Amino acid sequence: MTDLVRISAIAPIEFIHLSRALDGQNGSNRALGGRPQIAAQNDIDAIKAWLARFADTQTTFTSYRKEAERLLLWSVIELGKPLSSLTHEDLLVYQRFLGDPQPPERWVMKAGRKWSRFEPDWRPFAGPLSPTSQRQAIVILNTLFSWLVNAGYLAGNPLSLSRQRQRKAQPRITRYLEQDLWQEVKTSIELMQKETEREQEHYFRVRWLFSLLYLCGLRISEVTENTMGGFFCRRDKDGEERWWLEITGKGDKTRIVPATNELMVELVRYRRENRLAPFPLSGESTPLLLPIGGKQRPLTRSAVHLIVKEVFERVARRIEERGPDFASRAQLLRSGSAHWLRHTAGSNMAGGNMDLRHVRDNLGHESISTTSKYLHTEDDQRHKETEAKHRLGW
């Protein structure tokens, strides 16, 4: 067994050095003959070739690297075999491992803080994966194996034998804020401290963030990865000026979202608070959401997530003060996330009798149903209906 296996060394994929016996050059699942489409001669280089396809989308790249890295480390350390020798049975064992990474001192990060990939205490897991995260990990790995087969690196996909269960569509979205809780959130934001300059800046940032998440139905990644230069104004066929926000989102797809009058009022207020001109210029690089202090850099996804969770926690405490009968409502809010605001926006738009095609296009969904790809919508009408039927009402 190699030194890597014997000492149980854990390192990010950038720093892994494997012996010839473990690097996959002679993996039992390597494709023989044919014309390989990539130059990789070992498993790490093959994984890097696959990851290179996602280099322009940081969130996807990070997620895919994490799953490939975990499997590679597990394969060489726990099984003592290269990734390109894994069998279907090995992958079944790995699926169980994801739900309980043992031994934890080898695989799980110490509690207390998030460790950098470049620190000795870094580990591939923060803890056991939930069933949902386990399924997602296998989906990503199936993508990896399929690509390596198509690239002529592997002879077969060991995950292709897995039974592909069709997940039943949920009859309705449940992760959203009902009207009373949504009103509680807005009221709590309005009651935030505004005495000092820093408190005022934080208040206006929170108000702007929740306006973006709700009125535009944005994902956290769309807030952090887009800029104010995406706002633009154009006249409709009646000569009326309408503002739009161009968003590049999931799957690197671009859509335009109606920037209603209500949203533009909030934008102007937020920009003035940050000593910016009222309206952004085309192509302006100012992030959609700024750190306290006005530095011209985007916030991280975790920072935005924390802002939302802090607001929800503050609201939950206010609700709990009303007595034990409200404990369940407070707990529901504590389980919420920024994505709940996207669902809340979608529920409000659909519940307000908005054309479902307009809801689909506002949220950037692929389709309403399997046949909705044949449906089309006029942008001006979508803007008018969003303006009329989807309001925040601070």
UniProtKB/TrEMBL annotation:
<dbReference type="InterPro" id="IPR050090">
    <property type="entry name" value="Tyrosine_recombinase_XerCD"/>
</dbReference>
<keyword id="KW-0233">DNA recombination</keyword>
<dbReference type="GO" id="GO:0003677">
    <property type="term" value="F:DNA binding"/>
</dbReference>
<dbReference type="GO" id="GO:0006310">
    <property type="term" value="P:DNA recombination"/>
</dbReference>
<dbReference type="GO" id="GO:0005737">
    <property type="term" value="C:cytoplasm"/>
</dbReference>
<feature type="domain" description="Tyr recombinase">
    <location>
        <begin position="172"/>
        <end position="388"/>
    </location>
</feature>
<keyword id="KW-0131">Cell cycle</keyword>
<dbReference type="InterPro" id="IPR011010">
    <property type="entry name" value="DNA_brk_join_enz"/>
</dbReference>
<feature type="domain" description="Core-binding (CB)">
    <location>
        <begin position="41"/>
        <end position="149"/>
    </location>
</feature>
<keyword id="KW-0963">Cytoplasm</keyword>
<dbReference type="InterPro" id="IPR013762">
    <property type="entry name" value="Integrase-like_cat_sf"/>
</dbReference>
<dbReference type="InterPro" id="IPR002104">
    <property type="entry name" value="Integrase_catalytic"/>
</dbReference>
<dbReference type="Pfam" id="PF00589">
    <property type="entry name" value="Phage_integrase"/>
</dbReference>
<keyword id="KW-0229">DNA integration</keyword>
<feature type="region of interest" description="Disordered">
    <location>
        <begin position="370"/>
        <end position="394"/>
    </location>
</feature>
<feature type="compositionally biased region" description="Basic and acidic residues">
    <location>
        <begin position="375"/>
        <end position="394"/>
    </location>
</feature>
<dbReference type="InterPro" id="IPR044068">
    <property type="entry name" value="CB"/>
</dbReference>
<dbReference type="GO" id="GO:0015074">
    <property type="term" value="P:DNA integration"/>
</dbReference>
<dbReference type="InterPro" id="IPR010998">
    <property type="entry name" value="Integrase_recombinase_N"/>
</dbReference>
<keyword id="KW-0132">Cell division</keyword>
<dbReference type="GO" id="GO:0051301">
    <property type="term" value="P:cell division"/>
</dbReference>
<dbReference type="GO" id="GO:0007059">
    <property type="term" value="P:chromosome segregation"/>
</dbReference>
<keyword id="KW-0238">DNA-binding</keyword>
<keyword id="KW-0159">Chromosome partition</keyword>
<protein>
    <recommendedName>
        <fullName>Integrase</fullName>
    </recommendedName>
</protein>
